Amino acid sequence: MIPVEVRSVSLRGELRSDEPLARHTSWGVGGPARSFYRPADAADLAAFLSQLDPNEPLLWLGLGSNLLVSDTGFAGTVIQTQGCLTGLERAGDQGVRAEAGVSCAKVARFAARLGLAGAEFLAGIPGTMGGALAMNAGAHGGETWDWVHRVHTIDRRGKIRERLPDAFDIGYRHVEIPRGEWFLDAELQLTPGDDKACLERIREVLERRGRTQPIGLPSCGSVFRNPPGDHAARLIEAAGLKGLRIGGAQVSEKHANFIINTGAATASDMARLIERVQTEVERRSGIRLIREVRRVGD
Ligand SMILES: Cc1cc2nc3c(=O)[nH]c(=O)nc-3n(C[C@H](O)[C@H](O)[C@H](O)COP(=O)(O)OP(=O)(O)OC[C@H]3O[C@@H](n4cnc5c(N)ncnc54)[C@H](O)[C@@H]3O)c2cc1C
Question: What 3-state class would DSSP assign to 229?
Answer without folding.
Answer: coil
